[in-house]
Amino acid sequence: MFVAEMECRGKQEWPELVGSNAEDAKEVIESENMYVIGIILPKGTIVTTDYNCRRVWIFVESDTANVAYVPKVG
């Protein structure tokens, strides 16, 4: 486990949101962890690799706008 991961506060991942609407997922994530901001992106988007306790990537399917992968802090 990274040191940064141990310092992050609140809920860290949301497996229950896979397949759900991305906007709804963002709302759930931000309500369950007040320290993060959900960022919705199309599946396959290249993102920075730095670890950030305030960020949750929410990758979505292009045809449905539903969550494609487990959203996680990072």
From TrEMBL:
GO MF annotations, alphabetized: serine-type endopeptidase inhibitor activity
Keyword annotations: Protease inhibitor, Serine protease inhibitor
InterPro entries reported in the protein's UniProt record: Prot_inh_pot1, Prot_inh_pot1_sf
Entries under Pfam families matching the protein: potato_inhibit
PROSITE patterns hit by this protein: POTATO_INHIBITOR
Keyword Lipoprotein: no
Record-level GO BP terms: response to wounding
Domain of life of the source: Eukaryota
Annotated family: Belongs to the protease inhibitor I13 (potato type I serine protease inhibitor) family.
UniProt-recorded name of the protein: Uncharacterized protein
Organism: Picea sitchensis
